[in-house]
């Protein structure tokens, strides 16, 4: 069976800089793949190449075995990928409910009432239901991350990519997020979890890929990565 998400030889250059150098990885449904690496290792670039924001210079992206390389973001999203951003991107001047309705505006199969009900369910799951009529800009930074997660989940994507979900987030909220991420993989989603913070990655991931200067320098189970000399050196040398 094909992996839910797979890259082969993914390469991206910015001028003379090779930000991604032939990266091949895959994640199955229900699996959390951790992607670690210091600042500038290429983690966000990898995510941007997968979701279609960047066009890779080489290599391919497959969703459930279907090649989607170079397709625009909305097309890739429709194939079943949801993502969040390192700095949350929410519609600041829209209510929380309306933020959630944006990704499903084209779902003519469902009635407005059904979609609103689902949006409320997602907001309740993120403990934001009491704020559903507030503007997104009224939320704290951490709450905006939760709102973005709720919006990502609205179309029920089989693959989710989370870019630094814990960065700058209060520890209590981190714990809450960790539980929500466990729910996502528990519900059978393939999760690509990007973080430079190793503790949460080690807790959540079934496998880990370590990037450094655009290249995979190690991959394996948490136990393999934890003591891996190349990973330790990359982090200590940073
Ligand atoms: N749009 C861009 N234009 C030029 N250089 C970029 C761009 N995006 C990322 N880079 C460079 O690519 C490298 C990898 O960046 P990034 O993927 O953001 O790393 P990470 O997310 O691991 O911190 C860095 O050297 C960064 O400066
Ligand atoms: Mg990044």
Summarize the structure in short.
By secondary structure, the chain is an alpha/beta fold. The protein is 35% helix and 25% strand. The chain has nine helices and ten strands.
State the main characteristics.
single chain; alpha/beta; Rossmann fold; six-stranded mixed sheet; 9 helices
In words, what does this structure look like?
The structure is a single chain. This protein has 238 residues and is of the alpha/beta class. The chain contains 9 helices and 10 strands. The strands form 2 sheets. A 6-stranded mixed β-sheet has the order 6-7-8-3-9-10, with helices on both faces. A 4-stranded antiparallel β-sheet has the order 2-1-4-5, with helices on one face. It is globular and about 50 Å long. The model has no long low-confidence stretch (mean pLDDT 94).
| Cα-based radius of gyration, to the nearest Å | 18 Å
Supply the CATH superfamily name.
P-loop containing nucleotide triphosphate hydrolases
CATH topology: Rossmann fold
Small ligands present: adenosine-5'-diphosphate, magnesium ion
Q: How do the helices and strands follow one another from N- to C-terminus?
A: EEEHEEHEHHHEHEHEEHH
Please state the overall shape, judged from the principal axes of the Cα atoms. globular
Q: How many DSSP-defined strands?
A: 10
Biggest β-sheet description = 6 strands, mixed
What is the CATH architecture assignment? Answer: 3-Layer(aba) Sandwich
Structural class: alpha/beta
Q: Beta-strand level of the residues, as a percent range?
A: 25-35%
Taking the alpha carbons of the first and last residues, their distance comes to 39 Å
């Amino acid at each position: 069976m094909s992996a839910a998400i797979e890259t082969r030889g993914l390469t991206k250059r910015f001028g003379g800089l090779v930000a991604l150098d032939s990266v091949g990885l895959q994640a199955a449904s229900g699996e959390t793949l951790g992607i670690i690496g210091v600042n500038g290792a290429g983690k966000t670039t990898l995510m941007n190449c997968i979701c279609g924001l960047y066009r890779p210079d080489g290599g391919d992206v497959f969703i459930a075995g279907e090649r989607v390389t170079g397709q625009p973001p909305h097309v890739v999203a429709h194939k079943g990928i949801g993502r969040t951003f390192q700095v949350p991107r929410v519609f600041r001047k829209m209510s929380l409910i309306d933020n959630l309705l944006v990704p499903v505006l084209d779902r003519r199969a469902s009635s407005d009432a059904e979609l609103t009900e689902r949006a409320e369910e997602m907001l309740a799951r993120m403990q934001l239901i009491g704020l559903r009529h507030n503007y997104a800009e009224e939320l704290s930074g951490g709450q905006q991350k939760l709102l973005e997660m709720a919006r990502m989940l609205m179309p029920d994507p089989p693959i989710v990519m989370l870019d630094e979900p814990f960065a700058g987030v209060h520890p209590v909220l981190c714990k809450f997020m960790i539980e929500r991420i466990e729910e996502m993989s528990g519900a059978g989603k393939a999760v690509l979890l990007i973080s430079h913070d190793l503790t949460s990655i080690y807790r959540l991931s079934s496998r880990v890929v370590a990037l450094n200067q655009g290249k995979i320098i190690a991959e394996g189970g948490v136990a393999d990565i934890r003591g891996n000399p190349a990973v330790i050196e990359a982090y200590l040398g940073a």
